[in-house]
Amino acid sequence: MNASTEPANGQVVIGLNAVIVAIIEEQPKVLVVQHTSETLTAQHETLTERTALPHDNRHEALPFGPFYPLKHRTLETGLRSWVEEQTDHDIGYVEQLYTFGNEGRDPREEAGGARLVSVGYLALVQDTGPTAIENAVWQDWYRFFPWEDWRDGTPSILESDIIPALRSWIVNAPNSDEKKDRYERTCITFGLDDTPWNDELVLERYELLYEASLVTERQDSLNGEKISDHRGTAMALDHRRILATAIGRLRGKIKYRPVVFELMPPTFTLLQLQKVVEALSGSLLHKQNFRRLIEKKGLVEATGKIESQTGGRPASQFRFRREVLKERQALGVRQN
After folding, report:
1. 222 SS3 class
2. Cβ distance 152 to 53 under 8 Å?
3. How confident is the model over 113-139, as pLDDT tens digits?
4. Single pTM value for the model
5. Pick among 3.40.50.140, 3.90.1150.10, 3.40.30.10, 3.90.79.10: CATH of 3-143
6. DSSP per residue over 51-88, as a string?
7. pLDDT in tens, 70-118
């Protein structure tokens, strides 16, 4: 950073961001706050000088707010306070995700504003009832990352748009070394040329698209024209990057810890459980292999009750065995 853009007095402020995830009608949803230009600016006026944010119509944001050391006993209590105020929701399970402090996260930093360092959190909830706050809404997380949902096969946007655009980006590299590097990273992240797809590399895929100027948040231009982003819905600031981090973390974690049950009702069928895991991972699972895995790990127990399913046979209801948290460590739902 040069002297002309150094924040006044080297000031750093701390923000708190929440990725709140729920399963609604077998779809992974994230709670977002819809802002106008005025409300988004007002939300940040305590963090930086009140200056308009150049976001056009991209005002879907994660719940966020500043950390007040004199008001908030801990970072987590500050986060819970902001979430309740902005969404009218209490959050249960919460874990710290990552600390985001890259230069230029808030565009007003270039005008001498403070460096904004945000602590991101992942929260899993079951309460998805209506909120009294009109601009807090549940959105399908694949609305922001349509290339991540493989439940119906390879996403069409990959073959028709993203892969051709990335191949063009590779070809247009300034030299052979850069071309090789771009190709290798694209193979790893997007499964190019028969490389296996890794469902956990959500952040890496988004960051590659960002680097290639293929998403709106990049705020770059191609041929002098602003990018038209049809590759998922953009978000304010770097909130789509924070969301990508959370999705990748959750996809990885369900393979070795039973966090998926934080999203399940008290009782459920094994098919309902499988549908939730598939929704989170974005891929289909083999029914019998999944059920053998659940049985082998002793994650659930039958309630003795039967649920009538329309158009199918009655199904047994199960519940999560919380005792297993004390019994073993490797308790995820990775398919062997």
Report:
1. strand
2. no
3. 778 899 999 999 987 766 667 788 999
4. 0.86
5. 3.90.79.10
6. -----TT--EE-SEEE--TTT-SSHHHHHHHHHHHHHS
7. 999 999 999 999 999 988 888 888 999 999 988 777 766 666 777 889 9
The DSSP call for residue 268 is B
Q: What angle do helix axes 176-190 and 163-171 make, rounded to 10 degrees? A: 160
Q: Give residue for tokens 């070809």.
A: 171
The structure tokens 């995820």 sit at: 332
Asked if residue 232 lies in contact with residue 143, where contact means CB atoms within 8 angstroms, the answer is: yes
Alpha carbon distance 176, 182 (integer Å): 10
Q: CA nearest 215: which of 226, 224, 204, 223?
A: 226
User: What is the secondary structure of 12-49 as a DSSP string?
Assistant: EEEEEEEEEEEEETTEEEEEEEE--HHHHHHHHTTTS-
- Distances, alpha carbon 152 to alpha carbons 146, 155, 284, in Å: 12, 7, 8
Same fold, 3-143 and 258-327: no
Place of tokens 């249960």: 92
Amino acid identity for residue 203 in this structure: L
Task: Give me the CATH topology for the region 258-327.
Answer: Arc Repressor Mutant, subunit A (1.10.10)
Q: Which of 125, 138, 23 is nearest to 80 (CA)?
A: 125
Helices (H), 75-211: 75-87, 156-157, 163-171, 176-190, 202-211
Structure tokens at 216: 């709106």
- Give the start-to-end residue ranges of the domains of the chain: 3-143, 146-232, 258-327
**For residue 315, which of 261, 256, 274, 255 has the smallest C-alpha distance?**
274
Name 116's bridge partners.
13
